[in-house]
Amino acid sequence: MPAITKGLLAIGGLLMVLTAGPALLPMEPLRVALERQLGAAFGRTVSVHRFYFALLPYPQFMAEGIVDHQGTLHIAQAQAVPELQSLLSNGQTIVRELRVRDGYMDGGLLRALLEYPARFDDASVLVRYIRVEDCTVHVGDVSLTDIDAGIHLGADGRPLRINASMDAKRLHLEVLPTASGALQLAVQGSRWTAPFEPRLHFEQIEATALLETNHLKIWNLQATLDGGGAYGFLSARWHPVWAITGELSLHNVAIAALLSRGDGEPGLDGRLQATPRFVMRARHADRLLDSLELASDFTLRDAIVRNVDLAAAGDAARRRNTASPVTHLDEVSGHLVFKRGRYELHGLQAHSGTLSANGRLSIAADRSLAGRVDIQLRGTTGLLGVPLRVSGSLDDPQLAH
């Protein structure tokens, strides 16, 4: 059985203790046993505030207030609904539904579940269905919210089908098992906003994937966003460390959406063509974005550079008369490298009408600029070359001789 399914059964494991008649079982030992079981699954001490058997509205085992001592796990309520006839027999106990409501966990606990080696194939217990409602997973600053899932299980305890959604049902996931034991995934989304920066708004997104032990492979990833498109592949591992690698092809994607911080117009706009390859490696999931390394050739068409007028850069009088300087360029191209929060742009070439430019530029994590640009202007007196030093910031670029 895939590790992620074992982890879900561990959360819902509430009750694999259904192997004896509930009326004959004291609840306190079962509560303590459940705490041990969940503690083993999560790799830390877990407490269950209340565990009991209820007859109404139908017979069920209930657990409330499942938390860890670090404050990174909370499940408001979980229940196991048995089939009564199976409880009264000496044979197999059948759990018609395990349900987990209103919970959250952090990325460390998610990793623990993904790696949990426990087995829940005890022939004395058969779980038919697991339901997850209104749950959240936090990975660093990223929150996956409104998670709902339904998991149908076969007689051998393996999943027959998993349907899940998140973010108010804007993103849907269907999971089917394969003969090898891996899980095949199909993802579809509409009007979905990524839960991390840059918060890209996808008009449509879809992908197929394969989930194996410690490995997720995503291919045929296709998306449309702000009139542009993207497609590519991605590979993610979480043992022995977290590692994500991939490649995307971007066509006519608005670069303003990639650069936006939600605090006004970015300093650069235009339609981006690029094929970035990227890698992220970290011991903990919440450090993955900090480890991002990326490289790509790029072309930016119909570019707008705000707060600077390259054509007026060599004319002090013209600069003084430009209240809101803007440069329009037909095309900008070059090679981009991103590493340790710093952008390096090499081999920059830009042109528009009578203006052309080349150079290099560095953008630090604090958005400060450093570099050099050589501008050439064609006029009635011939070709004018102006070498300039770049400084300031993305929001307030400065050019000087």
Total DSSP helices = 6
**Biggest sheet character:** 23 strands, mixed
Sheet/helix structural class: mainly beta
Q: What's the order of the H and E elements?
A: HHEEEHEHEEEEEEEEEEHEEEHEEEEEE
Please report the distance between the alpha carbons of the first and last residues. Answer: 66 Å
Number of E-type strands: 23
Unreliable stretches? 1-24, 117-121
Overall spatial form:
elongated
Q: Radius of gyration over alpha carbons?
A: 28 Å
The percent range for strand residues is: over 45%
Instruction: Report the average pLDDT across residues.
Output: 82
Helix content: 10-25%
Task: Tell me about this structure.
- By secondary structure, this protein is mainly β.
- It is 12% helix and 57% strand.
- The protein contains 6 helices and 23 strands.
- The protein has helices at residues 3-11, 27-42, 84-87, 107-115, 255-259, 316-320; strands at residues 46-54, 60-68, 73-82, 93-106, 125-127, 129-139, 142-153, 159-166, 171-177, 183-193, 201-212, 215-225, 228-237, 242-254, 268-274, 277-282, 293-306, 326-339, 342-352, 355-363, 369-379, 382-392, 397-400.
- It has a 23-stranded mixed beta sheet that branches.
- The longest helix has 16 residues, at 27-42.
- The radius of gyration is 28 Å and the shape is elongated.
- The N and C termini lie far apart (66 Å).
